[in-house]
Protein 1
Amino acid sequence: MAKKRWFILTGSLAAIGIGVAVFVYLQGRPPLADTGEGAVAAEQGMAGKTNVKDRVNFALDSFIVNLADPGGKRYLSTKIVLELANKDVLASLEKITPEMRDRILMVLPTRTFNDIRTVEGKNALKAALIADLNKIAGEGKITNIFFQEFVVQ
């Protein structure tokens, strides 16, 4: 009976040790590379980047929209900051803020929870928003989008 307890105790400790080792190993690894649509968008966005000192951030008010999931029970609450190519762009974008908000409000509700639940999905959403906003702002004026808040319920 004592041997059986010893065997169970040793096996349990070994399993815990292996679990801890795997956890520590995975924590030290860099995140997996994004190879989907988001990676392409990120590469395209990086090509249009200017010097860091030239870029300016432009914060928009919060957005709350229903998602396109069946039944309409899920919604997205987000706060978006636009990264602009330079300071000169800021004045022209302030004039079209209502139109930019309208465009964003037309894009966000077309997504489902499954579309935006992953990092790849969020990157694809960013790419779509950048492309759509640059249609009205002028190509290359908006270089990136940062989600300051992103809550789905």
Protein 2
Amino acid sequence: MRIAVTGTHRAGKSTLIDELSEHLPTYVAVDEPYLLLEDEGHEFAQPPSVEDFEAQLSRSIANLDDAPRDVLFDRCPVDFIGYLLAHEDSDAFDVDAWLPRVREAVQKLDLIVLVGIERPDRIARSASEDEELRGAVDEKLKELLLDEAYAFGVDVLEVEGPLSARVKQVLAHLSSSGRD
């Protein structure tokens, strides 16, 4: 089964993947595109530019094309659509040009696990983090995945609560769908 864990930055995605990997030992975990591109020498602007997010979007699509059957992805193409739509230079991003490729790629997933911001926030952050962007991306991702703004047509599970509860929610969902 191909599972992507999605959400804004500092929401608990990587932590959830690490824990799920313990419960799903046959699954391969794939790092988020930012880290993969950085390892390959891509130098990101600070904050990342529209072009940086498009590079991550492109890499995320390629990751889905090349992945094995049982895999846990840290992020998926929808993450980068969310970041690009929330970006201060979003008018430089042509979402319509990307949608066919994104839809085709996302259809290769069996499940997207959405990790949103909770109140009170469960993740400790530094005061220097861009809370406005973090919140805007969270909102965009919920719109894209829960309200199906672009009709990606993929199974989405929104998880909440402490890490142990999030893991139980994912495992229960897999079990109830006969995909564990």
Protein 3
Amino acid sequence: MSDILRHSNDVAFTPAVKAVQARKGSRETYAQIEQRGGWRTEVDENLAAFLAETNSVYFATASAAGQPYIQHRGGPKGFIKVLDKYTLAFADYGGNRQYITQGNLSENPKANIFAMDYAHRRRVKIWGEARVVDDDPALMKSLMPQGYKARPEQVILFKISAWDTNCPQHIPQKFDAADVAAALALRDARIAQLEAELAALKGQPAAAP
């Protein structure tokens, strides 16, 4: 972290934010959280497990002038790796070659990872500082999901400043197509099994699938 924060959630709760919280009546609640230590700053079992099931995140950066930019990053579940209790990393695949994120990080390392779990209506926000690594083939190879058909171009290293979860309010429940297909396949297999058992009880051959 380039800035010294009194509380970990000061990464988001600037004086201007705290002034609005005070005006709208929520500052006392968040002050109590700060007194208990603030937001979490290390990867724990819960965050590691969440990321292990994550296949889609939004990665936010900003230019030196403060112009924000949000880019989607995806891959197989667990494509974001935990290197240590303070560091996340992922292989950054080739895309449309605009390089807005990379340009932003070259002049402003502050970044945010926003991860959604629609199936369980959960979300995680991770603040930190990120940098691009494009001269470490061994690291890139270690982060590339096995068998995934994408061209890795560089690595994003993300140092965690703080992270927090949100309540599930207003999160629509959605499911990945692959998970739905797997659930339907299990259902169909169970139906076929029950039909075969029923036919056997009746002394009749089971219907062809």
